[in-house]
């Protein structure tokens, strides 16, 4: 789905990394990261609140895109089924490629099947073991990755990223 005239937040390395020079660094960082992930969720849902022409009644919604934002084009791709780690690696490699005009950032959000006993199948099962969980209808397993290209020393492209994960009480990793 391609949307035009959409507010897109200006995501920088400062947005993704905790800055120690602020007076309240952790609180400010948590607020900016929460706003960014809220925007990612709204974009994934196709929310009209992100449209530059949206004039919603404040009794219906008080949402405002993160500040600063610019108006641009947004592409949302939805996928149902398994996504391979190779596909996700190609997304990151595309962002890092100097031959491609990369977007300001890319986000991948995945919702796992709550009744599955594992969250993922590793490429090499002998090296990595997936976390087990009790298959349950109320289980929760969502990850959201925000990744951006960052120019390093000597023109080398690097990657700055942030991963948020939501797990439920049925997951072995909790607590």
From TrEMBL:
GO terms for cellular component: multimeric ribonuclease P complex; ribonuclease MRP complex. InterPro entries: RNase_P_Rpp40. One of its GO terms (molecular function) is ribonuclease P activity. GO terms for biological process: endonucleolytic cleavage in ITS1 to separate SSU-rRNA from 5.8S rRNA and LSU-rRNA from tricistronic rRNA transcript (SSU-rRNA, 5.8S rRNA, LSU-rRNA); tRNA 5'-leader removal. This is Ribonuclease P 40kDa subunit-domain-containing protein. The lineage of its organism: Eukaryota, Fungi, Dikarya, Basidiomycota, Agaricomycotina.
